């Protein structure tokens, strides 16, 4: 599943390609996405508008047009590809659900599982409001996400820290892999109640969340089965996981076997010696 670093990588790659181009056409497969009806008319207000820039909010890629914003979410299996010089998809496959025709090429959205989305937002509307509670938390790479803020949010919270981090209303975009990895680096047990972690340990956790996300962005995102970045190249972060997907293998810090458990229907990997 594409997580924040993957979306950030796609954003950085597409920004110079799309900036300044105007939208000439919209094509769809006719199949719906999470909230998108599948009808090209749903995006027709964007026709003729130029892309002023691209940014990211949580795991949404935001195309900022003259008078609107378009939020693209890659869901579980979405891939964005830039096809220069084209005005129709290269080879029609059943999983190509949306394409945007620009002056100099085509932005193609492919998504076998159709959990992704395309949402039109008014130009002056705050994306964090429009995109719902799962996108309302702090941006993890911004300075406002710090030990003090996390400690304030944790007061009285009895929920397990990993589940709490992934809710999206405290901090956005800390998905399953990065939550497991950051908690291991910070030495915090994933099942510990968030409200029972000392402020200095929460500050360390903030440091390591930023660290794992920045490493993944530098390496182009995790290597997951179905993730490709905008240019269709697989990312390389996967080989660096210290706990994620390594159940039964030795902890790289202490040699103890990594354990796996399920929290809120998601697999958590941890070292029961290093993480308390
Ligand atoms: Zn260990």
Task: Give an overview of the whole structure.
- With 276 residues, the protein is α+β, with helices and mostly antiparallel strands.
- The protein has two domains: 4-132, N-terminal domain of MutM-like DNA repair proteins; 147-270, Helicase, Ruva Protein, domain 3 (Orthogonal Bundle), CATH 1.10.8.50.
- Helices cover 23% and strands 22% of the residues.
- It has six helices and ten strands; from the N terminus they run αββββββββαααααββ.
- The protein has helices at residues 4-18, 127-130, 147-154, 161-165, 176-186, 199-218; strands at residues 23-28, 51-57, 60-65, 68-73, 79-84, 96-102, 105-110, 117-122, 259-263, 266-270.
- The strands form three sheets. It has a four-stranded antiparallel sheet with strand order 1-6-7-5, with helices on one face. A four-stranded antiparallel sheet has the order 2-3-4-8. Strands 9-10 form a two-stranded antiparallel ribbon.
- A hairpin with a 2-residue loop joins β6 (96-102) and β7.
- α1 crosses α6 (199-218) and α3 crosses α6 (199-218).
- The longest helix has 20 residues, at 199-218.
- It is elongated and about 55 Å long.
- The mean pLDDT is 91.
- Bound molecules: zinc ion.
- The site of zinc ion has 7 residues, from loops.
Measured as a percent range, the helix fraction is 10-25%
**Taking Cα atoms only, what radius of gyration do you get, to the nearest Å?**
20 Å
Number of helices: 6
CATH homology superfamily name of the largest domain: MutM-like, N-terminal
Number of strands: 10
Which class of secondary structure composition applies to the elements?
Answer: alpha+beta
Strand numbers in spatial order across the main sheet: 1-6-7-5
Task: Please describe the biggest sheet, giving its number of strands, its sense, and whether it closes into a barrel.
Answer: 4 strands, antiparallel
Q: In whole angstroms, how far apart are the ends? A: 28 Å
Bound small molecules, by name, code or SMILES, are: zinc ion
Proportion of strand residues: 15-25%
**Backbone shape:** elongated
What is the CATH T-level topology of the largest domain? N-terminal domain of MutM-like DNA repair proteins
Tell me the CATH architecture of the largest domain. Alpha-Beta Barrel
CATH top level of the largest domain? Answer: Alpha Beta
Average pLDDT score: 91
Give the low-confidence spans: none
Number of domains: 2
H-E order: HEEEEEEEEHHHHHEE
């Amino acid at each position: 599943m594409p997580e924040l670093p993957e979306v950030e990588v796609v954003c950085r790659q597409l920004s110079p390609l799309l900036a300044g181009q105007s939208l000439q056409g919209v094509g769809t497969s006719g199949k719906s996405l999470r909230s998108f009806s599948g009808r090209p008319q749903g995006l027709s207000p964007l026709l003729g508008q130029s892309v002023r820039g691209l940014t990211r909010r949580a795991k949404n890629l935001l195309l900022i047009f003259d008078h609107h914003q378009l939020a693209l979410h890659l869901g579980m299996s979405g891939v964005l590809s830039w096809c220069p010089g084209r005005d129709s998809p290269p080879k029609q496959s059943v999983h190509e659900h949306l394409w945007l025709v620009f002056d100099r090429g085509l932005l193609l959205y492919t998504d076998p599982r159709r959990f992704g989305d395309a949402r039109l937002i008014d130009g002056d509307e705050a994306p964090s409001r429009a995109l719902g509670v799962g996108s309302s938390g702090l941006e993890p790479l911004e300075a406002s996400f710090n030990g003090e803020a996390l400690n304030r949010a944790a007061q009285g919270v009895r929920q397990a820290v990993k589940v709490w981090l992934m809710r999206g209303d405290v901090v956005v975009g800390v998905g399953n892999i990065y939550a497991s990895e950051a908690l291991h680096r910070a030495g915090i047990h994933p099942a510990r109640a968030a409200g029972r972690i000392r402020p200095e340990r929460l500050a360390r956790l903030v440091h390591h969340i930023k660290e794992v996300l920045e490493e993944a962005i530098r390496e182009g995102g995790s290597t997951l089965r179905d993730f490709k970045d905008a240019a269709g190249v697989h990312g390389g972060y996967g080989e660096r996981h210290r706990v994620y997907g390594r159940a039964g293998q030795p902890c790289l810090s202490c040699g103890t076997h990594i354990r796996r458990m399920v929290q809120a229907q998601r697999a958590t990997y941890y070292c029961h010696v290093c993480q308390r």
